[in-house]
Amino acid sequence: MTTTTAAPKSQGLAGVTAGETAICSVGQGKLVYRGYAIDDLAEHACFEETAFLLLVGHKPDAAELSAFKDEIVGYRRLPVGAVNLIKEISKAPGAVPMDVLRTVVSYLGQFDPNCQDISPAAEQTKSRQLLAQIPTIIGHMQNVIDGRDIVEPDDSLGHAANLLWMMTGQKPSDESTKVVDVSLTLYAEHDFNASTFASRVIAGTNADMHGAVTGAIAALKGPLHGGANEKAMDMLLEVGAVENVDSYMANAFATKAKIMGFGHRVYKQGDHRAPILHALGREAAEKIGPEATKWFDVGEKVQKIMLDEKDIHPNVDFPCGMTYYALGIPVPQYTPLFVAARITGWCAHILEQHATQKLIRPIAEYVGPENLKW
Ligand code: CMC
């Protein structure tokens, strides 16, 4: 067999450095956005500040933040064609919120006169538009699913509060807003994860931002990536009660089933984001009551068994499931909320990739048959 390269092979590109980025650094127990540690950002920065940091590259001053927030608020409303599309497809048989979101983001490219323009100025504008429009898509979709009239954005509310408002038509508490705001910051960016890498591969061909984001949403949906936050909660609901955890886990281990929300390609000693969200989510659940804390009790027992028996830690998707459930967010919207956050990281990476003007095109080692005659 012939090989064309001496480069090391890797299953799933594990451990391969596939390029450079100035946006984010991921290491054991360490996650840094443009030089700022994630625990510092989770404690001190609101999501809009984090979004500005990722997209523009520095911490905003008060005037920059205010202008950025105003710009986002101004982009929240969708073209009527997109609203009609959401109404049409959200209740289609088998409709999955991540698919609805992907379709509408792709469709929005059609309405954007700058869609084909991949200059930094045009892409900064498109980043802000997508950041503003994605919560509106999620909100409208949920309104249609719930059979209520479309809830328009509330320009007086910040990003996280407006997202919750549009989904429910009810003003969220300060506590729910804070928890969702921090979750968005934790989810915003994560270097060359699968969806971001997908967006960079698409952008690497000089394709447009809406196309690259559409591909990224498709990649995030998978249960081994962003879809794990929904699957983690589905699993806890299936377990049902603390007293069922032992038998559920014994059966999962016997059948070699994956426990969703555990394990990570990079973090082998734990995902730094998970305990931050777990603590916030549990605190919020305790104020809500036993129906909310119950799922943390179940989840903590699952977590203890995974650590004791497999030495596998939870990733951020595990506490996310319990936390969003406590806040009353419908499970099929957990991954769309991940999109509402990760759109910032994706757009920053698409800008960075377009600036390199470099195609991403690795090579494969051929392992198929040779020298056949037709
Ligand atoms: N449950 C049970 N066993 C696991 C799990 C898990 N969640 N994760 C890893 N393992 C085992 C795996 O079976 C393998 O065992 P063995 O060596 O005996 O075959 C070993 O640990 C190594 O796992 P791997 O799948 O080869 O590791 P990877 O780096 O290729 O995969 C992963 C990482 C995230 C895909 C994997 O841990 C997984 O499937 N986790 C469940 C899905 C999940 O929670 N995804 C979210 C990822 S992080 C946040 C995000 O992107 O949203």
List the helices and strands and how they pair.
Blueprint: E1 24-27, E2 30-33, E3 36-37, H1 38-44, H2 47-56, H3 62-74, H4 80-89, H5 97-111, H6 120-146, H7 159-168, H8 174-187, H9 194-204, H10 209-220, H11 228-239, H12 245-254, H13 273-288, H14 290-310, H15 317-326, H16 334-356
Antiparallel strand pairs: 1-2, 2-3
This protein binds carboxymethyl coenzyme *A.
Highest CATH level, the class of the largest domain: Mainly Alpha
Number of helices: 16
| Radius of gyration, CA atoms, in whole angstroms | 21 Å
Structural class based on helices, strands and sheet pairing: mainly alpha
Main sheet: which strands, in order across? 1-2-3
User: CATH homologous superfamily of the largest domain, by name?
Assistant: Citrate Synthase, domain 1
Low-confidence stretches: 1-6
Bulk shape: globular
- Characterize the largest beta sheet: strand count, sense, and whether it forms a barrel: 3 strands, antiparallel
Bound molecule kinds, no repeats: carboxymethyl coenzyme *A
Extended strand count:
3
How many domains comprise the coordinates? 2
Report the order of strands and helices: EEEHHHHHHHHHHHHHHHH
What fraction of the residues are assigned to beta strands by DSSP? under 5%
Question: What is the CA–CA distance across the termini?
Answer: 19 Å
Mean pLDDT: 96
The CATH architecture of the largest domain would be Orthogonal Bundle
Task: Work out the helicity level.
Answer: 55-70%
CATH fold name of the largest domain: Citrate Synthase, domain 1
